[in-house]
Amino acid sequence: MQTTIQLTPSYKTADSIILLLDDKGSVPSGLFSTTESEFIKNELKADKKSIVINQYKRLICIYQPDYSKDTDSLLELCRRIGDTFQGALNRSKERRVVIADLGENPNLAMAVAEGAALGNYQFLKYRAGRKKEANSLREIAIKSKGLQAAQVRNLQNMVDAVLRARTLVNEPQNFITATQLAKEFVAMGKEAGFKVTVFNKAKIKSLKMGGLLAVNKGSQQPPTFTVMEYKPKNAKNKKPLVLIGKGVVYDTGGYSLKPTPNSMDYMKSDMAGGAAVGSAMYAIAKSKLPIHVVALVPATDNRVAEDAYTPGDVITMMSGHTVEVLNTDAEGRLILADALHYAKKYKPELVLDFATLTGAAAAAVGSFGIVCMGTPTDEQRIKLNKSANRVYERLAEFPFWDEYDDLIKSDIADMKNIGGPTGGAITAGKFLQRYVDYPWMHFDIAGPSYLHSPSSYRGKGGTGVGVRFLFDFAQSR
Question: What is the chain's Cα-based Rg?
Fold first, then answer.
């Protein structure tokens, strides 16, 4: 279900309204009875930031932003209140709401709309009662001075992209195979206007992508390697931005088998990185941003079978490096390594990879941020952090000291695919670093990519983390 976001010059008598108050807390006259006005006045005096008035024919939701907060925190609070209000609107079976911005910062109204639209997401495809369970809210209109139609269209494109990523992650693996994932990217490319090329197993073999082929050995489904490219004539970057996403559509751990409870049972989400970069491409191209972007998604499942790769195997990567596999559950780095090596052909200005790579990253920061590390320029690092903070997908950059390289030394090969009991997120990054010769940043989204309980507008299940961050980064260029 898509929530439509649009501009409006005014609101109608029947419209439910979200009033976004200015820094003085001024409430417009004519909307409320004397009793309601007195109630609102008293609530605001008691420092209540949000108030919902049920007028039976409509809801009027009032929010007093805390203008003393820094900009990024204030935007996040607005997204969260947007989610809170969409819940009230759906419980009241409202179809449309108008966000009436009484302040002077239209970005706050946009954030409220963003939070409401993202919070309104549902994944009901497999539920028999989906028509009855579906949320009523369909339209979000924004009345705000200084807001341009193009800004709202871009917000719509970004929200739609996040929801696409969530749905890809929420789909079960018996639907989202590596082949189906590639088909979903092809469909996005046709709709948004970017080129999509899908390499089949024969092509992958000809390229000698040993990491992707090794992980795929235990599967009855073939691997895919999807190349997406958006290159507008007015692109401002001479060298492309390259995005890489891990596309393990299901991960049993292979012979290093995962335990089922709280682990293997939600490993359909192990392709969240691939979903993020493919969906970000959709938003970037649909918004016609003037930036040359390439996205690469190596995809396969990781299973146990007679011919599956095993601990102790030595495999040869596309780069020619040899890897001693000591843990078949450390498979994501193997398929990403081939993609990182392939990215060299583009001579990129920057490569960003997204992957649900390690439990160590999730344990370190939980679902509250993204673990990252890499070799970007100082200017690139600053811009990445600004975008991450703006959309509240905050970055926790880990140290990348040379000593961690020693932990992945192998006695019989160029490297091993795990580094031991400490620094697991970092040694995974160090493994990937062996395959790059360009500015690069690795983002481990294992913590925030899939939630087991609701978290405001991020919802439950697939969150689509990374899409908003990447879109903001591309847009800020």
Answer: 24
Identify whether 333 is a catalytic site residue: yes
Tell me the whole-structure pTM to 2 decimals: 0.97
Q: Which range among 27-31, 72-76, 121-125, 389-393 shows the weakest confidence by mean pLDDT? A: 27-31
Confidence class for position 2, pLDDT limits 50, 70, 90: confident
- The residue ranking higher by pLDDT, 102 or 477, is 102
Catalytic residue among 268, 333, 430, 434: 333
Q: Domain spans of the chain?
A: 4-147, 158-475
Residue 1 in this model has a pLDDT that exceeds 80:
no
The pair of structure tokens assigned to 299 is 């995809």
277 contacts 354 by C-beta, under 8 angstroms: yes
Q: Which neighbouring-strand residues pair with 139? A: 4, 96
Backbone torsion region of residue 150, taken as left when φ is above 0, otherwise alpha when ψ lies between -120 and 50, otherwise beta: alpha
CATH number for the domain running over 158-475? 3.40.630.10
CA distance 28 to 468: 34
Q: Which amino acid is at 263?
A: S
CATH of 4-147 given 3.40.220.10, 3.40.1190.20, 3.40.50.300, 3.40.1170.10 = 3.40.220.10
User: Is pLDDT at 62 greater than 70 in this prediction?
Assistant: yes
260 vs 331: which has the higher pLDDT: 331
Choose, from 258, 288, 344, 381, the residue flagged as catalytic.
258
Q: Please tell me the predicted confidence (pLDDT) of residue 261.
A: 87
Number of alpha carbons in the 13 Å side-chain half-sphere of residue 22: 9
Residue 458 appears among annotated catalytic residues: no
